[in-house]
Specification:
Elements lengths: L3 H30 L14 E7 L3 H12 L7 E8 L5 H9 L5 E6 L10 H10 L4 E6 L3 E2 L4 H5 L9 E3 L10 H22 L11 E4 H6 L15 H7 L5 E3 L7 E2 L6 H12 L7 H27 L2 H25 L9 H15 L13
Helix pairs in contact: 1-6, 1-10, 1-11, 2-3, 10-11, 10-12
Length: 373
């Protein structure tokens, strides 16, 4: 038998992480679960520049550009495609589309930017070349869920809004890895959308993100983060977003879908690159994200230890309180984000986070890879 003081440490530690988890679900995540979009008093149609950066993406461009080019949008818009040093036939694919769609602005880059790795330079070129003030960003491997993507994303704007955060889920495919990737994507969205609704926006995703060109220019673009390979979406938003200038759009018509990685190693490389930017977030965001991740990481080990070495009845009562709240919040949130097929698995997927954090922990101290995507 272990000393009584140790069993008490296990139990009271479990109580602490449970309270932290309840706090996040009640104060933050419930905002997305019970969010209702406010009806607009008037139409806010405005000219929009859709921007896509592509490198060796000929196949994706051929597959996905039609979904962007046939958007049902009553106001003026253009599609800016930045072809960044591609070695494939992407330029010819774009030229073929230009024969039928005159609103394509094809920017062909043939030289690498020195000392600027990642997607920041081509994206900056696309933004500076954009004709219109409202920018809508996505990736070459993404396709809008509907022909109303542009129309409904711009509805998030009012006279104070400079940023609209969207959701970029992955296509549903058979297999465990697809479920894990989609749950992680949902879990990330649950956080950044809920935080934005709470007035603490901290990131967006480049697969579905809109902001004003003036906001980009007055903050000197990506100049302060050019030394980081990634961060063109989350870190830039972390720097410029605030309570007053940020809105969210979670209408299913505004989602942009892409294919999830099919190999574990490819997904881990992708996540390593993403997590290397979090160390540069604002201190408040680092604290809130770190406290939540730590409590989630410790939750299940402390649950087991408390049930074994303290009192399993009290431990399970605490577990039940979180379980019921979590079940309601996740069901409603998953339903809003069209991920409800994951809900029957939510307890196993939630427990999986313990192992996920172990696998992604090296990203904290590893140097970020300087690949384009």
């Amino acid at each position: 038998m272990i000393p009584e003081i140790v069993s008490q440490v296990f139990f009271y530690s479990f109580c602490a992480v449970t309270l932290i988890q309840l706090f996040y679900y009640l104060v933050f995540f419930s905002r997305l679960a019970f969010y209702q979009e406010k009806p607009k008093q008037q139409s806010n149609d405005q000219a929009v520049s859709v921007i896509i950066c592509a490198r060796d993406e000929a196949e994706n461009l051929a597959r996905n550009l039609p979904g962007i080019l046939v958007q049902n949008y009553p106001s003026t818009h253009e599609l800016v495609v930045v072809n960044d040093n591609s070695l494939d036939d992407g330029r010819y694919v774009i030229d073929e589309f230009k024969k039928s769609f005159k609103h394509i602005n094809h920017i062909l880059l043939t030289q690498e930017a020195k000392l600027i790795s990642g997607k920041k330079f081509p994206l900056s070129m696309g933004i500076r070349s954009a004709k219109y003030e409202t920018l809508l960003l996505t990736d070459a491997d993404c396709i809008p869920a509907s022909e109303f993507w542009i129309d409904k994303m711009q509805r998030g704007y009012d006279e104070h809004t400079e940023i609209v955060l969207g959701y970029g889920p992955y296509h549903k495919r058979p297999g465990l890895l697809n479920k894990l990737i989609r749950f992680e994507t949902f879990h990330t969205a649950l956080q950044y959308l809920s935080y934005a609704l709470a007035g603490i926006p901290y990131m967006g995703v480049g697969r579905n993100l809109s902001y004003k060109k003036e906001l980009f220019l007055k903050n000197k673009g990506f100049s302060s983060i050019n030394f980081i390979p990634s961060g063109d979406d989350d870190l830039f938003i972390n720097q410029v977003a605030n309570k007053k200038n940020t809105a969210v759009m979670i209408d299913p018509d505004t989602f942009t879908y892409s294919e999830a990685r099919k190999r574990w190693s490819e997904w881990m490389v992708q996540k390593y690159r993403h997590y290397t930017t979090s160390r540069y977030y604002k201190p408040l965001h680092q604290f809130l994200l770190g406290l939540y991740s730590t409590s989630l990481f410790l939750y299940y080990p402390l649950l087991i230890l408390s049930a074994i070495f303290f009192d399993w009845r009290i431990t399970l009562a605490l577990f039940g309180s979180r379980f019921l709240l979590q079940a309601v919040v996740l069901y409603r949130s998953m339903k809003k984000l069209k991920e409800q097929d994951l809900w029957p698995w939510f307890l196993l997927l939630d427990a999986w986070n313990f192992f996920y954090y172990i696998f992604t922990l090296p990203a904290i101290w590893k140097s970020p890879r300087k690949n384009w995507n």
